[in-house]
Amino acid sequence: MSTGNILEEIIPRHILEKLTVVELKKKVVFIPLEEQKDIELYYILEGKVSCFTVDFNGREFLVDSLGPGEFIGKFSQMRNMNFNCGVRTATDCKLLRLTPCKKELLSDKNFSLYFYLKTSDRVYEMYKLAMLRMLFPSNEVLAYWLLKLAKDGTNIEEKAESICLQTNISKRQFFYCIKNFCDEGLIEKSGKQINILDKDGLKDIAGNVYLFMNENKKEDPVC
């Protein structure tokens, strides 16, 4: 089979021929919160998925968002733990299912090196995001996130629920900050859409968050 990406160079051909591509519609939970006897492992070819967990009060938290070129599976359980995270499709997706050949793949030197490099980078990014939520007040985090979502323009159509999940800001705090931003003339809100009126003003509020998130990056994602 052909995946049209770097995996064709890494996975031995005799293993690659055993793998299948799975196509899933949006909002399908394909990895459950519960522990799995046979741990599923996928590689994202097309689309986006969301890794989530639920607290003791039933509130859902977004743990990670992933797109093409990323591995997804219960990595904590692979290390004899279970962080009780599930995975659902955020868009229609095309996934390469690696589960049937997982042991063979992880025993292959080239594949295992690539796999652990990719997943280690993600752990760092998740740790950085967790620190962001602890170090900065909600208005600074939200200002940064709005600029990030609108980096190609000034219009944001992302739902409030989605932004709250991504930033771990409560809905109450979200709408409080949005009202303040509107009162200050930084944004305007029409129905579910948010329009940025003053990018520089939001960037002033998000300044410390921007420095923290992009200290070692050359590109400016919010300009």
Automatic annotation (TrEMBL):
<dbReference type="Pfam" id="PF00027">
    <property type="entry name" value="cNMP_binding"/>
</dbReference>
<dbReference type="InterPro" id="IPR000595">
    <property type="entry name" value="cNMP-bd_dom"/>
</dbReference>
<feature type="domain" description="Cyclic nucleotide-binding">
    <location>
        <begin position="40"/>
        <end position="98"/>
    </location>
</feature>
<protein>
    <submittedName>
        <fullName>Crp/Fnr family transcriptional regulator</fullName>
    </submittedName>
</protein>
<dbReference type="InterPro" id="IPR014710">
    <property type="entry name" value="RmlC-like_jellyroll"/>
</dbReference>
<dbReference type="InterPro" id="IPR018490">
    <property type="entry name" value="cNMP-bd_dom_sf"/>
</dbReference>
